[in-house]
Each structure stands twice: as structure tokens, then as C-alpha cells.
Amino acid sequence: MFNFKKGLTGLALFLSLTLILAACGGNNSGDSSEGSSESGSSVGEEMDYEIVGIEPGAGIMKATTSAIEEYDSLKGWELIESSSAAMAAELGKAIEDEEPVIVTGWTPHWMFAKYDLKYLEDPQGLYGEEENIETFARDGLKEDKPSAHTILDQFKWSPEDMNAVMVEIQEGAQPEEAAKNWVNEHTDMVEEWTNGADEVEGEEISLAYVAWDSEIASTNVVAQVLMSMGYDVELTQLDAASMFIAVSEGDADAMVAGWLPITHADLLDEYGDTMERLGPNLEGAKTGLVVPSYVEADSIEDLKPAE
Fold first, then answer.
1. What is the pLDDT of residue 42?
2. Who contacts 229 (Cβ-Cβ below 8 Å, separation ≥6)?
3. How far apart are CA 86 and CA 53, in angstroms?
4. Cα–Cα distance, 265 to 259 (Å, whole number)
5. Helix, strand, or coil here: 266?
6. 126: closest CA among 305, 259, 300, 250?
7. According to the model, what pLDDT value does residue 58 have?
8. Which residues form the signal peptide (predicted)?
9. Domain ranges of the chain
């Protein structure tokens, strides 16, 4: 005979289990949907659709402005103007907090030695391929200061050399101190730069540079070498355009900070004919959009437009 009470108890138990299983299934479905939404969510939203840049007018800023215009994935993004130091500080803070961030970056730069970073692929090639950093001198420097001209013309080093100086500066050394340490530890290379140059007694020479960590390192190294040959060296920090203008107009004797063929292309077109181009002092430089390796994007096209 059917036991009514037992039947009700069994039915209640069955319904309870069904509801529990349904709830669990619903949660799993919700988790799956949420996970899918998260994995497909916009990295850009977490970064407020902002790219942390450097000084306005820099070539990498112009390239990034073009990228925002040309890439559908960057529609609605904003390029934030700052400075190379502010950019590096913002990058460091984001990494410390394990948050996503995207910056305008370049190598050589000490941040690649300190952090695990990657360039976002640039399928449209707006940032170009590898660049060279070149030396420029004012017209007439070879006749006026032949020894300095010889040293500047023969100055060539590698990204690894530059990184060593930058890292020491970033760790707290003054630029002139780090440069002097590097010069003292690389006498063979310095002898190649000074080969054929005569020592002088207190001749003045001025070097212009832009306040990028890479150019602070290279300019201070060259200054130390010139000082060791008897020159009284004056260093003048300028923005990129003013640096080219200073050398082209003879207000500065030289610079070792021309990034080509992309970054300073416009400045070379405008002022290149009124200065002497001595050629690359470093090969294998690169610019582009840089993110910490934990950011789930490998290409500019992996980003999402602002909604």
C-alpha cells in the first residue's frame, strides 16, 4: 500500500535535490558566462582607454597618434602627454599593483632590464622597424674643434653598453658618476673613440640632449670622454625640436641623440641640411607600445575600441 507520508517526504527530498542541482548548475553557467565575459572583456576598459606617453612632439608620440587614428582597436583611446620619467613612474606603479597599463616605450631603456615587458605587435608598421641613434654636429665643428669631431665621429656602442649606464643611474647613481664608472671600465672601447684625437687644454664644447634615459646615458658618457681629453663640456637639456635647432644654428656643438629613420624624421627633414650627419652611434633601437607581460594582449589589434 502506498504510504502517503513517505511519498510526500520522498517528493520533497526529490524537489529539494532538484532545486539544489539547478542552483548549482545555474551558478556554474553564470560562472562560465562571467568567465567568458571577463576573458573577452576589454583590457582597455581596465586602463580607462589611456596610453601613457612622454613629452609632446616626440616622434613616438606622433606615431602613437597615427596608431590611434589608423587602428580600429584604438578608436576612442586617449594618448596622455607626460615625460619619460613620469611614464616610467606610472609603469612601475601599475606593475607594483599588478594592474594593466600601456605606455609608449623604447629600447634601449632600463625598464626592460627591471621589468618583464613586451612590445605589442604593430601589423601596420606605424612604428617602423629597428632604428638607429645618430650623432650630429654643427657645421664647422670639424675645422674648429677637430679632436672633438674625431671623438664624436668614432663614438659607437651597443644597447647592452647603454643599458648598463641607464640601470646604474636608475638605481641611484648620478648620471656623470655612472658614465664615469662605465668609461673607466671600458678603456679599450674608449681608446677606439679617441684614436687620432689630440688632447686639448680647456677648450669649451656644448652637447645638447633630450631628457630620455637613453640620451642622458649616452650624452654623459661622451661628455666624460671629452673631459678626459681636456675639454670643458657643457650639457644642455632640451626638447627634441629645440635640440635639432640648437645644433643646426650653432648654439650647441653636437648631439648624440637623433633617432632615425622614424622618430626624428620630421626634424631631420627640417634641419638636416644645416648640420653635419655623422652616422649611427647605436644600432638596434626600437619604439612602440609596451605592456607588462601579464597583460592579455600581444598585438595592438588585440585591444578594444572605447565604447
1. 65
2. 147, 148, 151, 194, 197, 198, 199, 200
3. 9
4. 8
5. helix
6. 300
7. 83
8. 1-22
9. 44-129+289-302, 131-284
CATH number of 131-284: 3.10.105.10
DSSP annotation string for 216-255: HHHHHHHHHHHHHTT-EEEEEEE-HHHHHHHHHTTSSSEE
CB burial of residue 152 (10 Å; 0-12, 13-18, 19+): buried
pLDDT at 44: 85
Phi/psi for 39 (5° steps) reads -65, -25
Q: What values do phi and psi take at 2, rounded to 5?
A: -75, 125
Class of the domain covering 44-129+289-302 = alpha beta
DSSP structure class, residue 74: G
Give the predicted TM-score (pTM) of the model: 0.80
C-alpha cell at 259: 633617432
Distance, C-alpha 184 to centroid of its chain: 28
CA 288/CA 240 separation, integer angstroms: 18
pLDDT means over runs of 10, the chain (307 residues):
41 40 39 34 82 90 95 96 94 96 95 94 93 97 98 97 95 97 98 98 97 96 98 97 97 97 93 97 96 96 90
Cell numbers that stand for 181 in this block: 664608472
